[in-house]
Amino acid sequence: MHAAGEYAYGLWTIVLLNVLLVLVFAVGFLRPRARADWRAMGIFGAWLVALFTEMYGIPLTIYGLTALLGRRYPVLDPFTHKNGHLIVALTGGSGALYGVVMTLTTVVFWAAIVIMGRAWRQVHSAREGLVTDGVYAKVRHPQYSAMFLLIGSLLIQWPTLPTLLMAPVLVVAYLRLARREEAGLLARFGEAYRAYMSEVPAFVPRLWGYSTSTVSSRSV
After folding, report:
1. Can you give the residue ranges of every domain in the chain?
2. Which CATH number among 1.10.8.60, 1.20.120.1630, 3.30.930.10, 3.40.50.150 corresponds to the domain 12-204?
3. Which residue of 149, 154, 186, 191 is surrounded by the most CB atoms within 10 Å?
């Protein structure tokens, strides 16, 4: 927490460490191989740089909004870390709200990392088989679902204009990857994967009424 009036930016070492930390997890668990995989990861890397640059480096969004709104900007010290959070600033600078937002989004972020890790372990242990149990019994693309959770948590944790504008591009890139992967799986596993698709949603798990009775746990 920063004292009132303290400029909480220019922390480039923290920017670099945060970008590298998230990229290490994402690359390690998603394991990009094809050119399309690396292209999507490149977009994600650029999005992370934009995010953490505004969080700890240069708050371009805050500069722009304070210049535009002048004295109408809702907080007096917009360049402290708490007041640099757009949701907090636009609701009057509540310290309690800042704490709740940061705590909840951190929990969701690490939950997404855990899901990515579990999905990677299942695929790795299947040895090229079709995985339909565990987290894959809930959604067909748990790693991409986790990526969307991660993106959403970071967007709420530190919303900025550049990252809000870039986020749809990033989501579309991973939706295209999912479609590309499904085409390959259909070609490889045929009716087994088609039956799996009919039972299991792509990204958002069903809350009720779901049965895996027609889907085998693994098909080699």
Report:
1. 12-204
2. 1.20.120.1630
3. 154
pLDDT band for 5, please (50, 70, 90 cuts). Answer: low
Contact present, 105 and 156 (Cβ < 8 Å): yes
- Band of residue 91 on the pLDDT scale cut at 50, 70, 90: confident
Structure tokens at 205: 């798990």
Residue 50's pLDDT is 96
- Helix, strand, coil percent content, the chain, rounded in steps of 5: 70, 0, 30
Q: Which amino acid is at 113?
A: I
Contacts of residue 144, defined as CB under 8 A and 6 or more positions apart, other chains included, come to 174, 175, 177, 178, 203
Residues 116-154 as b or e (16 or more Cβ within 10 Å = b): bbbbbebbeebeeebbbeebbbbbbbbbbbbbbbbbbbb
CB 123 within 8 Å of CB 131: yes
Nearest to 95 by CA among 114, 118, 77: 77
Cα–Cα distance between 198 and 175 in angstroms, integer? 18
Spatial separation of the C-alpha atoms in residues 30 and 141, rounded to whole Å: 11
- Whether 129 has a pLDDT exceeding 90, the answer reads no
Which of 59, 66, 61 is closest to 81 using CA atoms? 59
Please give the Cα distance from 68 to 15 (Å, whole number).
26
